[in-house]
Automatic annotation (TrEMBL):
PROSITE patterns: GNAT. The lineage of its organism: Bacteria, Pseudomonadati, Pseudomonadota, Gammaproteobacteria, Lysobacterales. It comes from Dyella telluris. Pfam families: Acetyltransf_3 (PF13302). This is GNAT N-acetyltransferase. Keywords: Transferase. Residues 18-186, 201-370 form the N-acetyltransferase domain.
Length: 373
């Protein structure tokens, strides 16, 4: 595979009301003022910003940024508003042209925080990394307790890869870091999961265009789905839905394990609900199966048909040999679906689930291939 091309021409990026442009030598004073203003909020996570930080440090950083750009090792930008005021710094560093990967880092001055500046800037820079530099993976590595930067990564739709011990240094000491990753957008025609059809139903991967229907479905279903699913609350936002869709699509590519599908009306492709596999245990050949149907479509046999359709596919087309359905013991509607689908009741597991902080007993059901004959 060819190396990522090294581009040396200066680039300015539009980011929804703000701009990203390469640092200029004459920016040293503006960078110094933005940094000094932000010591209290930024220095706990970026040790280079300390009480002794000087204008000379700003000039040195700009020179290093320019040199890194020339060597193809980094793309570092000033974040500026419409009036040219410096709002912070963002960059792709540790660019590996052979592996086509890079790290994304950012900070925003105190007076501009809480306004979505970092999110807008990071979206624009990630797009540049994928479309111009040809990157296939961008990592965001953040101190575990750096809540603000972690929230920015999550708003970007970055996948949380996990916590890495001793990944960074803070004030000279090794510290754990939360590692997030961004992958290039998929081509619109790409299908990251199976499409299964039977009767009037279609099971298919979630698409970004499903966001309004997903949001509406859950908000109409607070009395039913919300009663048993702690994530289904009136606070469930469009942003929550966008992250969920991105998460499920990544899972079908092997990143994460929330392999969910839309339950759709076969004739209209309208979203009715969702069914999916998670908590995979490859070594035991088993996974969990979960489902929900929007309130206006309940009690029509939709969930039962979807469970059987996905279970048949999973138990015949994959290495799975057993599917578990774990349901709050008092959730009689979902238990009825499992039983109608042919799942075998194995017993009550005490305090198996937690809902809004409270432990619940759960009914355990299982499906194996012979149950679906």
């Amino acid at each position: 595979m060819a190396d990522t091309p090294i581009l040396t021409a200066p680039t300015e990026l539009d980011a929804q009301g703000i701009r990203l442009r390469p640092w200029r030598t004459e920016d040293a004073r503006a960078l110094y003022e933005a940094a000094r203003e932000s010591i209290a909020s930024v220095s706990p996570w970026l040790p280079w910003l300390h009480e002794g930080y000087s204008a000379e440090d700003s000039a040195r950083w700009i020179a290093e940024s320019q040199a890194g750009h020339e060597r193809g090792e980094a793309r570092t930008f000033a974040i500026v508003d419409a009036d040219g005021r410096v709002l912070g710094d963002i960059g792709l560093n540790r660019i590996d042209s052979k592996r086509r990967s890079a790290n994304l880092g950012y900070w925003v001055r105190s007076s501009a925080q809480g306004q979505g500046v970092a999110t807008r800037a990071a979206l624009a820079l990630a797009r540049y990394g994928f479309e111009v530099l040809g990157l296939v993976r961008i990592e965001i590595v953040v101190a575990v307790d750096n809540t603000a930067s972690r929230r920015t990564a999550e708003r970007l739709g970055a996948h949380f890869d996990g916590t890495s011990p001793n990944r960074i240094l803070l004030n000279g000491a090794a510290a754990a870091a939360a590692v997030y990753s961004l992958l290039p957008p998929e081509p619109s025609e790409a299908s990251p999961g199976p499409v299964l059809e039977e009767g009037g139903l279609r099971l298919r991967p979630f698409r970004p265009t499903d966001l309004p229907a997903l949001h509406a479905s859950l908000h109409e279903s607070m009395d039913s789905i919300g009663r048993w699913q702690g994530w289904c609350t009136p606070g469930f936002s469009m942003e929550d839905g966008r992250r969920w869709i991105a998460r499920t699509r990544l899972a079908w590519h092997g990143v994460g394990d929330e392999c969910a599908l839309v339950i759709a009306d076969r004739s209209t492709d309208e979203l009715i609900g969702s069914v999916g596999l998670n908590h995979w245990q490859a070594e035991n050949g088993m996974a969990n199966l979960g489902y929900w149907v929007r309130q206006s479509q309940q009690e029509r046999g939709v969930a039962t048909a979807a469970v059987r359709l996905l279970a048949r596919h999973a138990l015949h087309a994959t290495e799975l040999r057993r599917l578990e359905i774990v349901i709050a013991a008092d959730n009689l509607a979902s238990r009825s679906v499992a039983e109608k689908a042919g799942a075998q009741f194995e017993g009550i597991a005490r305090r198996r689930l937690t809902l809004r902080g409270e432990p619940l007993d759960a009914a355990i059901y299982s499906l194996v291939a012979s149950d679906l004959a």
